[in-house]
Design a protein that fits this description.
- The protein is an alpha/beta fold.
- The protein contains 13 helices and 16 strands.
- The protein folds into two domains: about 170 residues, VC0802-like (2-Layer Sandwich), CATH 3.30.2130; about 240 residues, 3-Layer(aba) Sandwich (Rossmann fold).
- This is tRNA (guanine(10)-N(2))-methyltransferase TRMT11.
């Protein structure tokens, strides 16, 4: 199918991790910067090489200023399944598009990138020499070139059966690199204040990108914990806030999560985490509050809600309340009263979360959250729905052989009305979703079975 003349073709080189999360991230970022993910995109599943049709180089550069799933992007000049096809493709590329980067006043270098195979230096030089038909008039500069060109060869995904010849060969002009270095610079290992469930830095940035967080947004996390999900949003220029039911975590008190450290220090708190990265100015506040009983007045507040609710594995699922019957006539507790907490069923937690998002997100705002699932019983019907929220993506991360969690992204598409509050009760999808209440038991039953199996094999 012919590509529209208004679109330019770019080659995206992706990292080979979090494979399910890559496409939703790229789609979200293209949408954020004014691009559109059209049917002309050539996506090859698990392959690290994708060909994208993007309206402008500016959008391509903005995409790379945000993505942690992609390594680099190139303006694609040629593509083929053999050297001959590549050369033919290059010769048909419009000269007027090449000319600005090839004239005599420029400097350049050509790099070779291979996936799933290593080439010798002699083989690399041979491939570069074969491009002598291209009208390069500038000087070669290997240290500080003005323009970098790359030959990229794809030898498939199977390291045990590497073909002699590449499956695909690409040639393009390097445009920009992605933000892979953020994974290391924001690593939880280096973070001042962490908890038992602090989110991996790479996934945290993916969540912010799925949420289309941008400068001057207001981003909220109702299960904020140690604030790990606030950091990527603040890095992208959004103002951040959150709530959590755990007083000690919000105030940075109690036992430390780090090995060989008994108690948290006086400067171990969420605000200090943002200060560590120079992001303190984006910190609004974090409140001790029960997510099942939001303390916010009616109205639209948030551009994105990004959260990782507790599943009852490492962190308990709690809300304020009592198992005892409340005596009649007592309408409110004295100020000195500290409410006890009771179990917060997962089904209720996610229903409350979706209702809260539907009420407080601006139109077009996004909810991004993790949903735990027991794989033998998982179907897409388990993912909760809401009439005000459109499902954008649903990506899996395996936790064990029998459990996983799904990163669910939803977008607010209509204003919240009173009848929407209980709409889930009328939907058959709510029934299988109730099974999530036993996720903890199912999770540990699988662990128990595995241990028993291992002990049996040892005895044999």
């Amino acid at each position: 199918m012919a590509l529209p003349s208004t679109l330019n073709r770019y080659l995206l080189l992706l990292a080979q991790e979090h494979l399910e999360f890559r496409l939703p991230e790229i789609k979200s970022l293209l949408s954020l910067f004014g691009g559109r993910f059209s049917n002309h995109q050539e996506i090859h599943g698990k392959s690290p090489f994708w060909i994208l049709s993007i309206p402008s180089e500016d959008i391509a550069r903005n995409l790379m200023k945000r993505t942690v799933c992609a390594k680099s992007i190139f303006e694609l000049w040629g593509h083929g399944k053999s050297p001959e096809e590549l050369y033919k493709s290059l010769k048909s590329y419009p000269m007027e598009k090449m000319a600005p980067f090839l004239h005599s006043d420029t400097t350049y270098k050509i790099k070779i990138h291979t996936f799933n195979k290593t080439l010798t230096q002699e083989e690399k030089i041979k491939r570069i020499d074969a491009l002598e038909f291209l009208p390069f008039e500038g000087k070669v500069n290997l240290k500080t070139p003005q323009h970098i060109f790359s030959i990229l060869e794809d030898y498939g995904l199977d390291p045990n059966h590497i073909p002699e010849k590449p499956l695909n060969i690409y040639f393009g002009r390097w445009i920009a690199d992605g933000q892979r270095e953020l994974i290391e610079s924001y690593s939880v290992k280096k973070r001042h204040f962490i908890g038992n469930t602090s989110m991996d830095a790479g996934l945290s940035f993916i969540m912010a990108n799925h949420g289309k967080v941008k400068e001057n947004d207001i981003v909220f996390d109702p299960f904020v914990g140690t604030g790990g999900l606030l950091i990527p949003s603040a890095h992208f220029g959004a103002y951040v806030c959150g709530t959590d039911i755990d007083y000690n975590t919000v105030h940075g008190l109690g036992k430390a999560s780090r090995k060989n450290q008994k108690w948290r220090g006086p400067d171990e708190n969420i605000k200090a985490n943002l200060r560590q990265y120079g992001l303190e100015k984006y910190y609004l506040d974090v409140l001790v509050s029960d997510a099942s009983k939001p303390s916010w007045r009616k109205g639209l507040f948030f551009d994105a809600i990004i959260t990782d609710p507790p599943y009852g594995i490492r962190e308990s699922t709690r809300k304020t309340g009592s198992q005892k019957e409340v005596p009649k006539g007592i309408e409110k507790c004295p100020e000195s009263h500290i409410p006890v907490s009771i179990n917060y069923h997962l089904s209720d937690m996610f229903v409350d979360l979706l209702n809260f998002a539907a009420e407080t997100l601006v139109l077009g705002g996004r909810l991004v959250y993790w949903l735990p699932v027991y794989l033998p019983e998982y179907t897409e019907e388990i993912v909760p729905r809401h009439p005000c929220l459109k499902l954008i993506s649903n990506c899996e991360q395996r936790l064990s052989s029998h459990t996983a969690r799904r990163l669910v992204t939803m977008e607010k598409v209509k204003d919240f009305e009173d009848q929407d509050h209980y709409s889930h009760l009328l939907d058959n999808q709510f029934l299988p979703y109730k099974g999530l209440n036993s996720f903890r038991e199912k999770y540990f039953s699988g662990v128990t079975k595995r241990i028993a199996k291992e002990e049996k094999s040892i005895q044999e």
